[in-house]
Structures are given as C-alpha cells and as structure tokens.
Amino acid sequence: MKTVLAAAGLLFVSTAAFAQSSPAAFTEKAASGGMFEIQSSEMILKDGATDPKVKEFATQMIADHKKAAADLKAAAEKSGVSVPTTLASKEATKLKQLAEETGDKQKLYLTQQMLAHNDAVVLHRSYAEAGTDASLKAYAEKALPVLEEHSKHVDMLNPAM
Q1: CA-CA distance, 148 to 13, in Å (whole number)?
Q2: Quick one: signal sequence residues (predicted)?
Q3: Which one, 42, 61, 74, 158, has the greatest CB density within 10 A?
C-alpha cells in the first residue's frame, strides 16, 4: 500500500512537469508508452497469460494502443513533430524485465500495466489541460477517456495492488 501511495504522490508531483512538456517531449513520452503497452501485451499473450481475463485485457490493449498510435502519429504530423519508433529507455527496461521474469510473469505484467496507465493518464490529462500544440491537445483529450478506462480495468484485474 505504501508503494502505491508513494507512486500516486510522485504522479501528482510530476503532473506539472508533464504539463510543461514541449510538443516533441509529449509525443515521445506518449509514443513510447503506447509502444510499451502493445509490446508487453503481445509478449504476455505469447508466453505468460493464464487467466482468460488477462488475455482479454492484453488483446484490448493491443487494439486500443495501435489505434492511439495512429491517432498520435496523425496529430504529430499536423504539428510537424516526429514520432519515435523505438522505446525510450524506461519502457525498454520494463519490457526486458517482463521478458526475463521467471516467476509470475502475469502478475508483473499487471503491475507494469497499472503503473504505465497511471503515467499515461497523468501525461495525457496534463497535456490536454495545458499543452501548447492544438493538434496534440486534441489527441490527448480524445485518448484520455480510453486510458482512464484501461487504468480502471487493470486495477480490477490486479486487486492486490
């Protein structure tokens, strides 16, 4: 519980930093987070998910985040911002941890999803409220309700957190 509260506190503190992100920084964070959601979900479906509800969640993450990636790319192109095609080091490290997990891979996946979606909600909410680029703000506003739903869904799947 302390870990969750500490993480929540860090998310609250980091909101101001996310809101001040440049269009390029927002795009980089949003793209890397989305790629992590897709790649980790593909990984858990391939070799780790045993619970049908987790499989359903992972399948939904792939579909929703591929759509969000296309929407982000379109918004970024309108704004003249490039979209990265590789994971940032934070997400690459998390993906490597999941790949190398020898214990309960499904539990690690759910924990990572919970934290990743908390970050994504804060990032998108902050940019929707205070971002400087109209196209990216519109993208953030559109993506936010889906990300909030994902966050609630993963919390229900991972009640121990």
Answers
A1: 19
A2: 1-19
A3: 61
Q: Is 120 helix (H, G, I), strand (E, B) or coil?
A: helix
**CA 124 centroid distance within chain:** 10
Amino acid of residue 28: E
Above pLDDT 70, what percent of the chain?
Answer: 86
State whether residue 50 is helix, strand or coil: coil
Return d(Cα 138, Cα 72) in angstroms, integer.
10
In whole angstroms, what is the distance from residue 123 CA to residue 20 CA?
10
Residue 79 Ramachandran class (φ > 0 left, ψ -120 to 50 alpha, else beta)? alpha
SS3 126: helix
Confirm if 135 and 81 have CB atoms less than 8 A apart: no
Domain architecture of the chain: domains with CATH: 2-157 (1.20.1260.10)
